[in-house]
Design goal:
heterotrimer; A alpha+beta; B alpha/beta; C alpha+beta; A: alpha+beta; five-stranded antiparallel beta sheet; 2 helices; B: alpha/beta; TIM Barrel; 5 helices; 6 strands; elongated
Chain lengths: ~100, ~160, ~550
């Protein structure tokens, strides 16, 4: 199994966020905590559930990443798009921040 | 109105209680004669897939029909309630139970449902608030409530009102 | 067009306030997401990839200049300054925030608009021919019935929790510009032998995972009976539609499973019951009241030819090109129907910026246009332009990037938002649309190819209507990589047909080449002036398969 990242959307603004134990729910994937596969499920059940219960986030889930040296690359295109913003509008989303 | 607590729901294989009972359609079909001969008011519980037409001519002998909603998305109970009130001319109590959201109460009331067993109890004032958030309705339904079309017609007749 | 009276206005205001209460309860934790989701969906609010998406209802695609201007304003104030016009004539805003939505709904209410039932398992936006009241082949304006059905189906107590979404389309002429044959209910306005106007009703059409062409269930339904007839279909569906499997829950599956004969029988039985109890007739006075809103505007008595237009056509080749494709004949002399393309080469199909919306609203006022229409092919239409104003309109549209002369041609591509935006998508569609448009940008080449409808969906849900594209493209996820299947031979018009998958899919690099190969096969084999669709229907898939796959 692959290393994973915990993600969700903020309940209020709908923004894509990622979990980092030291910093909480962060905006950018490169700030996310990489979860080893044997820990990830537990984090989802604990942090994800708590985030929902505390009305911070909705739909928490894990996704696979590859670690290339210091770069974290999501395995799925969908997650790359969620992290950056729409490829059809490079001036929008986190890629434009 | 809050659900009438005098009725007791009883499982298919359990003995009937002293007073009024609510049985499944299957049990009613199996034990019809005994159930009707009891001299007690009888309640019938319909699952979402069970059309009230399955009750047949005995429908008027049933004092309470409980429509089970397994999941809020299952909208068959609205049609069943409507069917009971219109084609079957059912005059008894219709109750809805199961996974029903407060925000569905207004719809159920319109199609002829009298009482509710909500997963989370709601006060009568809360239910009334739920019913009256939207003042007017567009389409006619079982409740015979005046529709926006009726209101417009009334307005045309007497513009001052 | 329809104007709200106090009741309509109060309805949408109260609805906005009701939603405000629901949002507050959600944010305060009194509603879980599971409980809130159906409520927000009934107000057209989705959670997509990047943010909430708000789908604004544009009943039968008709907007006033005030409404269009307000949409531009809302997109600027609350979103990222643009919106996306959809294949159901609605507008989507892709960057909404939950706490803003109640205010957005109130702003919409101010211009007689709402987001009711643009999602959820209920009757969705009722779509109609975008040439309504202008096309010369029209029997009756389809928007009258559409408005009647819209009111009747709004917060319908019995039909708000259907097995699945329910889409109705209405066409008022023999030419089907509303794709009625691929809707849950499609209604065609017809005349019987006595010359009376009535409705031919189809049901069980639909796209998505399992596409079907609709079946006739009512040959000629009288005007006095149509509401009862529609109610009968809906009741049969609500009672008998499948609820065990979300992919088998549309009415098309029910019709397929029980057969059209049995469907007809059940509908007729229910219809007879409704009629017997004497309920559900729209009061005649109410029908007249609604119909009056769709009375055609007062047309000037104009000559059919315009010297200005003829002169401009000669002197400005770009305008001449635009006239060729983007202007259609109007039933009144001196008038014309102008299509505003939202398919500029290299731009996202169907997207429109706030600036463009506001400028278009100004143009509507300048040229005395009471209405603008959204088409299911993601363009806009000014249905009642004076011919003498067409050149001035063209020049202003050109300055706004809205004068692409490609209506109905290869670059007039329909594409869903796809994986760039949509939570349900498996592949991106916009980039593919842009690449194909770039390849076919040459206008002479497009004219040589003639009418060519390319439709792209980013997933099996088929919001891009790929099943009814002459060339349809379906984006899938193939082992984690975006892959694109080609379908050929679909049509959403009155000659409705479903496209057939040609063979294995192509990756992002190869799909545009594959489309070029399909087109090359067509140009090689075509007879006379036939379209690609016609050639495909004549020669079948084999020559196309050979070109694309034989190696």
């Amino acid at each position: 199994m692959m290393p994973q990242v915990l993600t969700a959307n903020r309940l209020s603004v709908g923004e894509v966020v990622y979990w980092n134990a030291a910093r909480g729910w962060v905006a950018y994937m490169h700030d996310a905590e990489i979860l080893p596969d044997d820990k990830a499920e537990a984090v989802l059940k604990d942090i994800g559930a708590r985030g929902v219960q505390e009305r911070q986030v909705v739909n928490p889930y894990l996704f696979d990443v590859r670690v290339d040296g210091s770069t974290v690359v999501p395995v799925k295109t969908r997650e790359a798009i969620r992290a950056a913003g729409p490829s059809a509008r490079r001036d929008l989303g986190k890629q434009a921040d | 109105m809050p659900a009438d607590r005098a009725f007791l729901a009883v499982a298919d294989n359990d003995p009937l209680p002293e007073g009024p009972a609510i049985v499944s359609l299957a049990r009613f079909q199996k034990e019809r004669d005994e159930l009707l001969a009891r001299g007690e008011k009888l309640g019938l519980r319909l699952e979402a897939s069970e059309s009230p037409e399955l009750i047949g001519a005995d429908v008027h002998k049933i004092a309470l029909i409980v429509l089970n909603v397994p999941y809020f998305r299952d909208g068959r109970a609205y049609s069943w309630a409507r069917l009971l009130r219109t084609r079957l001319h059912y005059k008894g109590e219709i109750r809805v139970t199961g996974h029903v959201l407060r925000d569905q109460v207004a719809f159920f009331t319109r199609v002829g449902v009298d009482s509710f067993e909500l997963p989370r109890p709601a006060s009568e004032s809360d239910l009334e608030a739920a019913r009256s958030e939207i003042s007017h309705v567009y389409q006619p339904s079982v409740d015979g409530r005046e529709t926006i079309w009726d209101l417009r017609a009334r307005q045309r007749k007497s513009p001052a009102s | 067009m329809y104007r709200y009276d106090e009741f309509d206005a109060q309805f949408v205001r109260e609805r906005a306030e009701q939603f405000r209460g629901q949002v507050a309860r959600r944010l305060a934790g009194e509603l879980t997401e599971d409980e809130f989701k159906p409520l927000r969906l009934m107000n057209g609010l989705y959670l997509q990839l990047h943010a909430y998406m708000l789908r604004i209802a544009i009943p039968y695609g008709t907007l006033s200049s005030g409404q269009l201007r307000k949409l531009g304003y809302i997109a600027r104030k609350y979103d990222r300054g643009y919106g996306h016009f959809t294949t159901r004539q609605n507008l989507q805003l892709h960057w909404s925030q939950l706490p803003d939505v109640p205010d957005m709904l109130l702003e919409l209410a101010e211009v007689e608009m709402h987001c009711l039932q643009t999602s959820g398992n209920c009757v969705r936006n009722i779509t109609a021919d975008h040439f309504a009241a202008a096309g010369s082949d029209e029997i009756e304006d389809p928007r009258i019935l559409s408005e009647v059905l819209r009111q009747w189906s709004t917060l319908h107590p019995e039909f708000s929790f259907l097995p699945r979404k329910f889409k109705i389309a209405v066409s008022g002429s023999a030419a089907d510009r509303a794709a009625i044959m691929v809707h849950d209910i499609g209604i065609q306005i017809v005349r019987n032998d006595e010359g009376e106007i009535g409705y031919r009703v189809y049901t069980g059409g639909g796209l998505g995972r399992t596409p079907f062409i609709g079946h006739e269930v009512g040959r000629f339904v009288a005007k006095t009976d149509i509401l009862a007839f529609i109610e009968a279909i809906m009741r049969v569906y609500n009672e008998s539609g499948r609820r065990d499997n979300i992919h088998k829950a549309r009415i098309k599956i029910l019709v397929h499973q029980i057969g059209p004969e049995e469907m007809r029988r059940r509908v007729e039985r229910e219809f007879a019951e409704i009629k017997a109890s004497g309920t559900l007739q729209l009061p005649e006075a109410e029908l007249q009241r609604i119909a009056a809103y769709f009375a055609p505007p007062t047309f000037e008595d104009l000559p059919d030819t315009s010297a200005q237009l003829d002169q401009a056509k000669k002197s400005d080749p770009a305008f001449a090109n635009w006239l060729r494709t983007n202007v259609d004949a109007h039933k009144v002399p001196g008038y014309a129907i102008a299509t505003i393309s939202l398919k500029a080469i290299g731009e996202t199909p169907g997207d429109c910026s706030s600036e463009q919306m506001e400028a278009l609203a100004d143009l509507m006022d300048e040229f005395g246009q009471p209405e603008i229409r959204v088409t299911h092919e993601q363009n806009l239409v000014l249905p009642h332009m004076r011919k003498r104003d067409l050149y001035a309109l063209f020049q202003k549209l050109d300055a706004l990037g809205l004068a692409t002369a490609n209506h109905g041609l290869a670059t007039d591509i329909i594409a869903c938002p796809g994986l760039d935006y949509c939570d349900l998508a498996n592949a991106r569609s916009i980039n593919i649309a842009k690449e194909i448009a770039r390849r076919f940008a040459d206008l002479e080449r497009q004219h040589d190819l003639g009418e060519l409808k390319i439709k792209i969906s980013g997933c099996i849900n088929a919001c891009g209507h790929h099943h009814v594209g002459h060339i349809g493209i379906l984006g899938v996820d193939r082992k984690g990589v975006e892959n694109y299947q080609i379908l050929l031979g679909g049509s959403g018009a009155e000659d409705a047909s479903l496209g057939e998958i040609l063979g294995p899919g192509f990756d992002s690099e190869g799909i545009a080449d594959a489309v070029e190969n399909v087109v090359a096969t067509y140009t090689k084999l075509r007879h006379g002036g036939e379209r690609l669709l016609d050639t495909y229907r004549r020669v079948g898939a084999a020559p196309f398969k050979e070109r694309l796959y034989a190696r």
